[in-house]
Amino acid sequence: MDHTSTVPEGVDVTAPHSARVWNHWLGGKDNYPVDRTLGDQILAIHPKIAVDARAGRAFLGRAVTHLVREEGVRRFLDIGTGLPTQQNTHEIAQASAPDSRVVYVDNDPMVLAHARALLDGTPEGATEFVDADLRDTGRILAEVEALLGLDRPIGVSIIGTLGHVPTLEEAREIVHAYMDALPSGSLLMVADAVLPERGSAMEALDEWNKEAALAYRGHTREGFASYFAGLDLLDPGVVPCPSWRPDPLDLGTAPDTDMYAAVARKP
Predict the structure, then answer these.
(1) Residues 6+ apart with CB under 8 A from 159
(2) Is the pLDDT at 249 greater than 80, yes or no?
(3) CA-CA distances (angstroms) from residue 40 to 5, 25, 37, 44, 50?
(4) pTM score, two decimals?
(5) Of 42, 60, 150, 184, which shows the fewest CB atoms inside 10 Å?
(6) 251: confidence class by pLDDT, cuts 50, 70, 90
(7) Residue 12: φ, ψ to 5°
(8) Angle 89-96/48-69 helices, nearest 10 degrees?
(9) So what's the pLDDT on residue 260?
(10) What CA–CA distance (Å, rounded) separates 3 from 9?
(11) CA-CA distances (angstroms) from residue 56 to 44, 49, 262?
(12) Which of 205, 197, 158 is closest to 48 using CA atoms?
């Protein structure tokens, strides 16, 4: 996407944006030179960032599949959707249960411009897109009640998004606001960065925060685990993404990554 004629309305191509840089790391094409420039700078400092991006995406696939097949979940809320790529939440869920219903939430103009790619689901199921900031919990929960209902458990996914909330305290309050409002038996799926105190990961984070339109912060393992306070963690608990119920063929081949993940159930 190098031509201004392809720029959707409201999209700023003068500053790199996280959804588009993330798309670049995943090998997508929905990004611009400014995004690729920063993305490549980060890769030069910390090549593992591309592994992190792929690990978070793969975790989403395994977690949603588990919720559908083993937990019987048929309703999903995907917060901080990002740009459509292969194996989006509705595709994963509806592959196992065609009647699955998914609500996507994002407020990025680029994501909104591509939202129709997220609405092409099965005839038996449904997919909807809500243009909103994840902090607007009241409005989003009202949409969830209207579109999904609150009479059955809902699977909530928040992948690579909570680090953009300025403080852990605020991010934790947001997560708890969603889970407090959802029915018992609802499940929370989160993946985000747990970074060492020093090294190339922190250098890359500093570079990101100097250039990107939306700052990011890493987590300690304890901080990441605090998102699940009051919930019942599913085995194996809080672990690097590739270690969360890996596919049998991937056993023993898990890549080194700073992306951690967990799934927990509301009692």
Answers:
(1) 56, 57, 59, 60, 80, 82, 189, 190, 191, 192
(2) no
(3) 24, 9, 5, 6, 10
(4) 0.90
(5) 184
(6) low
(7) -95, 115
(8) 30
(9) 97
(10) 13
(11) 20, 11, 11
(12) 205
Collapsing DSSP to helix, strand or coil, 230 comes out as coil
Q: Which amino acid is at 155?
A: G
pLDDT attached to residue 50: 87
For residues 108 and 19, the answer to whether their CB atoms sit within 8 Å is: yes
* pLDDT for the residue numbered 250: 61
Contact of 128 with 105, CB cutoff 8 Å? no
Residue labelled with tokens 């890493």:
218
Residue 201's pLDDT is 86
Q: Sort strands 155-159 and 75-79 into parallel, antiparallel or unpaired.
A: parallel
What does the alpha-carbon distance between residue 143 and residue 78 come to, in Å, rounded to a whole number?
A: 13
Contacts of 182 (CB under 8 A, 6+ apart): 144, 150, 153, 154, 156, 266
Per residue in 192-214, pLDDT tens? 999 887 788 889 899 888 888 78
Q: Which two tokens stand for residue 166?
A: 């300025």
- Nearest CA-CA partner of 240 in 55, 11, 2, 110: 55
144 band by pLDDT with thresholds 50, 70 and 90: very high
Going by the DSSP 8-state scheme, the letter that residue 27 receives in this structure is T
Sequence letter at residue 146: A
Confidence of residue 5 (pLDDT cuts 50, 70, 90): very low
